[in-house]
Write a structure and sequence with these properties.
about 325 residues; alpha/beta; D-Maltodextrin-Binding Protein, domain 2; Double Stranded RNA Binding Domain; 13 strands; about 35% helix; binds the ligand NCc1[nH]cc(CCC(=O)O)c1CC(=O)O; EC 2.5.1.61
Length: about 325
Amino acid sequence: MTDGRVGTQPGEKVRIGTRGSALALAQTRQVADALAKASGLEVELVTITTHGDTATESLSQLGGVGVFTSALRDALVRGDIAVAVHSFKDLPTAEHPDIELGAVPKRADARDALCAHDGLTLETLPEGAKVGTGSPRRIAQLKALRPDVEIVDIRGNIDTRLSRVFGEAGDDRRLDAIVLAAAGLGRLGRSDAVTQHFELGDWPTAPAQGALALEVRRQKDATAFGRALAKGLAAINHATTRASVAAERGVLAGLEAGCAAPLGATAMVDDGLLFVTATVYSVDGTDQLTSSHAASLEGNGQAALLEAAEDASARVTEELLANGAADLASLGGAR
Ligand SMILES: NCc1[nH]cc(CCC(=O)O)c1CC(=O)O
C-alpha cells in the first residue's frame, strides 16, 4: 500500500482512532496534540463506536473483555487508522497478534474519587446512603468500609453518572454519591465534583487506571511517514508509567482475572526500585488478600524497567495465589 514511498506525502495525516465519549475525545485530543508536536506530522481524530458505547446492559453483565476496545483494534488492523488510543484499564491483557503498544504517555492520577452531595465523604455519608458504581472492585471496597450503604449499579458516561448525584434526576434515581476515577474527572474538567480522594495505599485501583495506551500495527510502514510516527511515539512514551502499568497488568494476567475482577493494583518506580502491591477482594468485601514486592532495576531504560515489572508482578501473583486468591476472587465468579 505504501511500498516505495520515499517522503511523507503532502497532506498525509496520522489517523488517530478514539471512542466518541467526551472523556475519550478529551484524552485523545491531548495525546494527538503531543504526537503532532513530537513527530512533526499532521494528525486527525477518527471516532469509532464500540460495543461498550451502544450496549445498555450494566458493565458487569456485558462481561467485559474488550467491549470498549475491540472495534478500535479492528480499525487499526484494517488500516483505517494508524494509532488507536484506549483507556489502558479497558484493554484486555491478552496479546493481539497484529498489534503492539506504541506508547504509554505519562500517567494521570490513578486514584478513585468519591463525588457526593453536600461535601460528604465515605465516613460522613448517612446510614443506608445510596452509592453508585458498577465495578466489582469498588463494590467490594465500599462494602468493606461501609457495609451499611446501598450500592446501586450504574453505567453510562461520566456526565450521566454525575447527574445522578448533582443533576435533575428524579427522586427514585437520585444517588447520594458515586465513585469514579479521578483521572476521568480531571480530563473532563470536572474535578470540582470530587468530595474525597481515596489514597492508593488503602484503596488501590484498577490495573493501569489513569494511563492511556497508544496501539499501532506490528507491521510497520518503512516510509518517512512511518519513521516520523515511530519517533513521535517514542518521544511521548513515559518509561516508568509503561513499566508500572505492565507490573499492575502482569498481576491481572497472572491471576487470570478479567477486567471486571475485584482486584486493585498499584505500582511505582522510586530510587532504583519498582514496587507493586495488589489486593484481591471477595465480592462481599468481607475478605481481602494483599501482596507487595519490589524488584531492583538492573540497568537503565525501558527494557530494564519492564524486566523489573515482570519480576515483581510474578512474585506478587505467586504469593496471592499461594494464599488462596483464586478462591477468594471466584466468590464473584458469576460476574
Ligand atoms: N471503565 C470505564 C473507564 N475507563 C477509564 C476510565 C477513566 C479513567 C482512566 O482510568 O483512564 C473509566 C471511568 C471510571 O472508571 O471512572
